[in-house]
Design goal:
By secondary structure, the chain is of the alpha/beta class. The protein has eight helices and eight strands; from the N terminus they run H-E-E-H-H-E-E-E-H-E-H-H-E-E-H-H. The N and C termini lie far apart (51 Å). Bound molecules: uracil and iron/sulfur cluster (SF4).
Length: 208
């Protein structure tokens, strides 16, 4: 049997968020389901006006089945609050729905997904965009930008502006909260957080 090229065969024809959340558990659109605990679809409701797209679930998200519940999620929640976006108003999801990692002893070390994983998982994101139909999509980092816009993005040059995404949808690119988090040890955390908040404010201003 040949391997599936992407997730499309597993996406329900008439999607709702509960249907997607159930169906994604059976997805075999790439090999990442094999080692993960479960697929992580999203959090937030179909009425959300802002959709935030991360990369993939991390260790804690993989165990708990919810996006952004680990350390990066803490930074994101802080930034959303500072930008005046209520977490209840936001839909949180990822470009890739299964956790990619390599084992090191008992630890699981996060590994960035490859382009082929972003491509394979894209049908889920597309279905979510159709169901939620947000006013604005925020791409957290270059992988999310690649997944949403279908092209290479440069965070430094493109962040914090309202771009036109597929179908004319307002799209804002910003940095990933994990990148902000890494600066805690190195310095520059406050500035990086302030930049993330400023970009989220741009997103919050769309449609209001
Ligand atoms: N990083 C992401 O990109 N997504 C998550 O859900 C958690 C961490
Ligand atoms: Fe399917 Fe995406 Fe999981 Fe790959 S990562 S198996 S495409 S849900």
């Amino acid at each position: 049997m040949s391997e599936a090229q992407d997730a499309s065969a597993w996406v329900p024809a008439r999607p709702t968020l509960p249907r997607l959340a159930e169906a994604v558990q059976a997805c075999r659109g790439c090999e990442l389901w094999e080692d993960a605990t479960q697929a992580v679809l999203s959090s937030g409701g179909p009425g959300a006006r802002v959709m935030l797209v991360g990369v993939q679930p991390g260790d804690q998200e993989d165990r708990r089945g919810e996006p952004f519940v680990g350390p990066a999620g803490g930074v994101l929640t802080t930034a959303l609050e500072a930008a005046g976006i209520e977490v209840g108003e936001a839909y949180l999801t990822n470009a890739v729905k299964h956790f990619r990692f390599r084992p090191r002893g008992r630890r699981r070390i996060h590994e960035a997904p490859e382009l082929r994983h972003l491509v394979a998982c894209h049908p889920w994101l597309e279905a979510e965009l159709g169901v939620v139909d947000p006013d604005v999509v925020v791409c957290l980092g270059a992988s999310a930008g690649r997944a949403v816009l279908g092209r290479r993005v440069r965070i430094g040059a493109e962040r914090g502006k309202v771009l036109e995404g597929p179908g004319g949808r307002a799209t804002v690119i910003t940095t990933h909260p994990s990148a902000v988090l890494r600066l805690r040890a190195r310095g520059g955390y406050d500035e990086a957080l302030a930049e993330l908040v400023a970009d989220l404010r741009v997103a919050a201003s769309v449609g209001s």
